[in-house]
Design goal:
The chain has 638 residues and is mainly alpha-helical. It has 24 helices and two strands. The protein has a two-stranded antiparallel sheet. A hairpin with a 6-residue loop joins β1 and β2 (98-104). The radius of gyration is 31 Å and the shape is globular.
C-alpha cells in the first residue's frame, strides 16, 4: 500500500505516452482503410488506453482514501503524523536536498479521489463529445498527463517535487485549451492562460525557496514542523510569494482574467481543468501549508480582501454573461474565492469541504452545459430555451447542480457553503482577521449568496424554460460544437452526468450534519431572494434577458468591470510599443551598423580595384613614379 501513491501517479503518465505513440500505430487488416475509418480506429484505441489506467488510478486513490479521506472533514483538519507512502531517493544539490517522496495523508487522500473521479468522468464523456475529432488521441493523452501531474501535486511530500507537477499541469492546460487551435481566439486564450499563470508561478517558486531555506528543508512535513520557530518576516514573505502562484492557478484577483477566456477549449476540459482540479490546486496548496499561512496574519488579511473582491465581482460578471460556459467560468472564480475566504477566516476544513462539493457539482454543470451545447450547436443562451422537454436527463442533472451552486438544501453545496459562512461569522466575532478585512469578507460573502441565486436561476430559466429557440444548423467547422438531431446526448456523455449528479446531491452529508441554523437560514433566504428577483423579471418578459435588472451596471458587469481593458492599457500596449521600438532599433541601429560596414567595405574595395585594373603601362608608370619619389627624397634628405 505504500507504493499506491506512486502507482496512482505513474499509471496515467504511462497512458499519456502510450496514447501518443500507440494509438495511431499501423493496423493491418488486409484491406486499405479510409482516413475517416483509420481515425475512428485510432480514437477507439486512444479511448481504451486513456480510460483503463485512469480507472485503475481511481481505484488506488479510493483505496488510499478509505483509511484517510473523510477524517479531514470530520476531524480538526490537522494532518496526522503518519502517512501512507515512501521516499524513493534524494537528489543532492548545492544546497538543500530534494526528497523524492510521495505520500497520502488525510488531505491528499481525499483530493486524490476528487481528481481521479473527475478525470475518469471527463475521459468517458469525451468519447462521445469528440467522437469524430481527428486529434482525439493527443487530446486524451494530454488529459492523462494532466491527471498524472495533478496527482503528483496532491501526493508530493516535497515542495520541489510538488512544483514539478504544478508546472506540467500548466503546460497541459495550455495544450488542452488550444486543442482547436485553428480558431485564433482559442490559441490566444491558451497563450493568455499560459502567460498569466506563469506570472504567478514566478512568485510561487521564490516562495518555495524562501520557505524551504527558512525551514532548512523542502520536505513538507519538515517545513510545517519548523513553522513555530520561523520569524514572522520569513513567513509573511514566503506566504505572500506563494499567494501569487495561488492567485494564478486558482484564478483569483488580480490574476483571474485567463479563466473566462479558457472556456474556448472543449467543454470537457472546462469541467476537468477549470472547474474541479487545476483551479483547485491553489486552494489545496494553502490548505496543505495552512500552519504557515495561519502564522502570517498580514497574508491572511490580504487573502481575505482578494477573496471578498473576487467572489462578489465574479458573481456580478456571471449575472450579465450570455455565453453559458462563461457564466460557469465566472461562477468558478466566485466559488474559489469562497474557498479562499474560508481559509482566510481560519477554517481549512470548511474550505476543503467546499472544494470537494464544488468539484462535484461544477464538473456536473460543465458536462451538462456540454450536452446542451452539443444539442443546440451554440454556447449562447439567446439561442436556447425550452430544452427541458428535449433533454430531460440533462435538465434534471443541471437542476441538481444549480441547486448545489446556490446552496439550497439538501444539495451538497448547502452544507459546505454554510460551513464557510459560519467560519466567516466566527472570524468577525473572534477577530482572527483585522476588523475591516473580516467585515468586508463576510459582507461580500452574504451579497454573493444572493447574486449566485440570481445568476444560477437566470441560466436555468433561459436554458430550459420559455419558448424553444433551437434552429437546425449545418455541420460546423472543426473546432466548434457538434449539432445532433437526437433528444439527448450519446450514452457516453449521459452516464458521467448521471453518476456525477449523485455526489452533487449527497456529498454534503459526508461532513456530517453540522449546520449553523442562523447562518444557514440567512444563506437560503438570500439565495431565494436573488432567485426570486430574476424570476419576477423573467415572468414580465420571458423573451427578454433578466440581466436587465442590473440597470446601468449591466455593461460593466458584462465586461467584468473592464479589468482586461485596464491590463491591456497598462501592460499589453506598452509592451507592444516597447517591442516595436526594439524591432525598429534592431533594424535601424544594429542591422544598420552591419549593413553600413558592408557598404563601407565594398566602397573601399571599389577604390582599391581602380589600381588593380590589369593595365601594364599604368603599373610601370606607377613604379617609375615611386622610384623617382624615393630618389628625390634621398637627395633632399641628404
Amino acid at each position: 500500500m505504500t507504493t499506491f501513491p506512486l502507482l496512482a501517479v505513474l499509471l496515467p503518465f504511462v497512458a499519456a505516452f502510450a496514447g501518443l505513440l500507440l494509438s495511431r500505430r499501423p493496423h493491418r487488416t488486409g484491406r486499405t482503410l479510409t482516413k475517416q475509418s483509420a481515425d475512428r480506429r485510432a480514437n477507439t484505441r486512444a479511448a481504451w488506453i486513456a480510460i483503463i489506467p485512469t480507472t485503475a488510478s481511481t481505484a488506488l486513490a479510493a483505496w488510499l482514501a478509505w483509511g484517510h479521506g473523510f477524517a479531514f472533514l470530520t476531524g480538526d483538519g490537522t494532518t496526522p503524523a503518519t502517512a501512507t507512502g515512501r521516499t524513493y531517493g534524494t537528489l543532492t544539490t548545492g544546497g538543500l536536498p530534494i526528497s523524492l517522496t510521495l505520500q497520502a495523508d488525510d488531505l491528499s487522500a481525499i483530493l486524490g479521489v476528487l481528481v481521479t473521479l473527475v478525470a475518469l468522468a471527463v475521459q468517458v464523456y469525451s468519447v462521445g463529445y469528440l467522437a469524430d475529432d481527428p486529434r482525439y488521441p493527443s487530446y486524451s493523452a494530454f488529459i492523462s498527463l494532466f491527471t498524472s501531474a495533478m496527482l503528483l501535486v496532491v501526493y508530493a511530500g516535497d515542495l520541489l517535487v510538488l512544483y514539478v507537477g504544478w508546472e506540467v499541469m500548466g503546460l497541459c492546460s495550455y495544450l488542452l485549451i488550444g486543442h482547436w487551435w485553428e480558431d485564433r481566439s482559442n490559441s490566444r486564450a491558451a497563450v493568455k492562460a499560459f502567460l498569466v499563470t506563469r506570472l504567478g508561478d514566478v512568485g510561487f517558486l521564490f516562495g518555495i525557496f524562501v520557505l524551504g531555506m527558512g525551514a532548512g528543508s523542502f520536505r513538507i512535513a519538515d517545513v510545517l514542523a519548523k513553522v513555530p520557530g520561523m520569524s514572522t518576516g520569513t513567513l509573511v514573505t514566503a506566504t505572500l510569494l506563494l499567494l501569487a502562484g495561488v492567485a494564478g492557478k486558482s484564478a483569483q484577483v488580480p490574476l483571474h482574467t485567463w479563466l473566462p477566456d479558457a472556456m474556448a477549449g472543449p467543454t470537457p476540459i472546462s469541467a476537468l481543468i477549470h472547474a474541479a482540479t487545476m483551479v483547485a490546486a491553489g486552494i489545496f496548496i494553502v490548505a496543505r501549508l495552512f500552519p504557515a499561512f495561519r502564522a502570517a496574519p498580514p497574508t491572511m488579511d490580504v487573502l481575505a480582501v482578494l477573496a471578498a473582491l473576487g467572489m462578489l465581482g465574479a458573481a456580478l460578471a456571471a449575472l450579465a454573461q450570455d455565453d453559458l460556459k462563461r457564466v460557469l467560468a465566472y461562477s468558478t472564480v466566485s466559488q474559489l474565492a469562497y474557498m479562499a475566504g474560508g481559509l482566510a477566516a481560519g477554517s481549512d476544513t470548511a474550505a476543503i469541504f467546499h472544494l470537494l462539493t464544488h468539484g462535484a457539482f461544477k464538473a456536473l454543470l460543465f458536462l451538462c452545459a456540454g450536452a446542451v451545447i452539443h444539442h443546440v450547436g451554440s454556447n449562447l443562451m439567446t439561442q436556447m430555451g425550452g430544452l427541458r422537454r428535449e433533454l430531460p436527463v440533462t435538465f434534471t442533472a443541471m437542476t441538481i447542480g444549480l441547486a448545489a451552486l446556490m446552496g439550497l438544501p439538501p444539495a451538497s453545496g448547502f452544507f459546505s457553503k454554510d460551513a464557510i459562512l459560519a467560519a466567516m461569522d466566527d472570524a468577525v466575532a473572534t477577530g482572527t482577521l483585522t476588523d475591516a478585512a473580516a467585515l468586508l469578507l463576510y459582507g461580500c460573502a452574504l451579497a454573493t449568496v444572493a447574486v449566485t441565486g440570481a445568476y444560477a436561476t437566470r441560466a436555468w430559466l433561459r436554458t430550459f424554460f420559455g419558448e424553444a429557440r433551437v434552429v437546425a444548423l449545418p455541420e460546423p467547422e472543426p473546432g466548434t460544437a457538434h449539432v445532433v438531431d437526437v433528444t439527448e446526448a450519446p450514452r457516453t456523455m449521459l452516464v458521467p452526468v448521471v453518476l456525477l449528479a449523485a455526489p452533487a446531491l449527497l456529498l454534503g452529508l459526508a461532513g456530517g450534519l453540522h449546520v449553523d441554523l442562523g447562518v444557514a437560514t440567512a444563506g437560503v433566504v438570500l439565495a431565494l431572494l436573488g432567485a426570486g428577483a430574476v424570476y419576477v423579471f423573467w415572468r414580465m418578459d420571458p423573451l427578454a434577458d433578466p440581466a436587465r435588472l442590473l440597470g446601468p451596471l449591466r455593461t460593466p458587469c458584462e465586461q467584468a468591470f473592464y479589468v482586461d481593458h485596464a491590463y491591456s492599457a497598462l501592460f499589453v500596449r506598452p509592451v507592444l510599443v516597447l517591442a516595436r521600438l526594439v524591432v525598429r532599433t534592431d533594424d535601424a541601429v544594429v542591422d544598420g551598423a552591419v549593413r553600413g560596414s558592408g557598404r563601407s567595405a565594398r566602397g573601399l574595395a571599389g577604390v582599391l580595384r581602380l589600381a588593380q585594373n590589369g593595365n601594364v603601362q599604368l603599373y610601370v608608370s606607377g613604379l617609375l613614379a615611386g622610384v623617382l619619389l624615393i630618389a628625390v627624397g634621398a637627395v633632399v634628405l641628404t
